[in-house]
Predict the 3D structure of the following.
Amino acid sequence: MTCAAIYVRVSTSRQAEHDLSLPDQVAQCRAYCERKGWEVAEVFSEPGASALDDDRPVFQEMIFKAKRADRPFNFIVVHSLSRFSRDALHSEFYVRQLKKVGVQLISITQDIGHDTDGEFIRQVLNVFDEHQSRENAKHVHRAMLENARQGFWNGSLPPFGYRVETKERRGDKDKRALVVDEAEAAVVRKVFAMAAGEEGRPAGVKAIARYLNERGVMRRGRRFSTGNIHVLLSTTTYYGVHYFNRSDTRNGRPRPPSQWVAVEVPAIISEEKFNAVRALMQSRAPKRMPPRVANGPTLLAGVIRCGCCGAAMIQNTGKGGTYRYYCRSRKLKEEITTCRGIRMPMGRLDDIVVGEVAKRVLEPKRLGEMLEAYVRLGAERQTGCRDRLSKLRQGHKDAEAAIARLLELVEKGLMDAEDPSLRERLIGLKVRRDELAKEAADLRRRLASGEPQITRDKVDRLTRLLRDKLYDGPAELRQAYARLIMDEVTVTDDEIRISGSKGVLARRASQAELPAAPAVLSFVQEWRATQDKTANTYVIEIPA
């Protein structure tokens, strides 16, 4: 008995759900087999699979069974050759494999024979099918690009925090767009707030995922993972700009930014917060900052160094953890060194450093004198502010120009759009641009109102706040405030040197309302003003 297998296919799952094509293909192929007197051994139905791709599960299963030693069927019957494949190379490859095992491909709508002429016609038809498929894909892609340019959604699953809503109807087509899903958006805002440290110390992706999972917060029925949180914190859609056409859906390769389509969508957070969080994530990345520094509660972690060789000093313990002390990190890793290393009890050194900072910096009169350049009134101050405003505007323009130059390099193909160093540089420039814009706006407001940037009352409030936070509270918050005040603590046998940024203190003192916890600035030192080291740093020397 001659047996045949039927193979039917449609290109999309939507066609499979709403179309009659699959049942019609099966019915016509069965009728053809009945006329030939063939028994239908099996029907292989493939919904939602492109014929330009041979990685189709049902298709590969059929090829595997056709090549079995028991030969379950002698023919593969399709409605047309395009159902089997639209790629000329793939089609010829599998047809020849089937021919070797004695299985013929039959198209019920294209009777071309199986002699030499028939093979030639089949190959020509395959080339035409491939060309037609690629032309159709090109026109569909062009329509999707235009749909995105008009601000509409192209049918994929919306990002978490959004849902799709029909905005208008054109003919028989519903034009849909993203709208904020308030229930999910509340979770998104919470994630960014935790990452930015608005409610305490900035949290990492693992801590955020654990926090949400412990409270039963789900991501559309599934638990959050570190990957989910990282993607969420990296998606520009949340500040109102969604990019369509970023990658080729067939092979996953990224497209150059010149081919991206920016779609304006409702924002859930501000762009400034997004850039700040991205910069904070980069500054805490293991390649830039060891996890023990980013996550450990050690007060001086990340700022304390050996004054002899410049190596970082880290926490070590003795007698089973009873005693804790700072020691030079290299001493634990190197047997022979030119520096004999320094070892100091942690509690003693912490008390000395905090005490001296409180006495020599966080005393209202001393801090006011240190920042007297910022509280001076009169024509000289007004002129200085205007000069500063001019520099801020120029810095903002320079940052914008640098961003444009980087994007131009990507568009010309000189840099890869997915290069991590490029993304890091762009985030840094955007953060710098936002900081300059904010500082310029504050300065313009002060110039218009005539209010001084720093007052004695603000200095008093700042010193009280910082004293309280350095002496009391959770260890991780004490550490964050220590990093805000101190850039570096170097320790030798003879002295302890503490250096910090006047600019950071001045900006904090000038704020109308002081933050409950340090923002991203406490972790990314590159943001601090460094043009004039003499004017922007303070140094305390303490005999050991």
User: Anything to note?
Assistant: The mean pLDDT is 77.
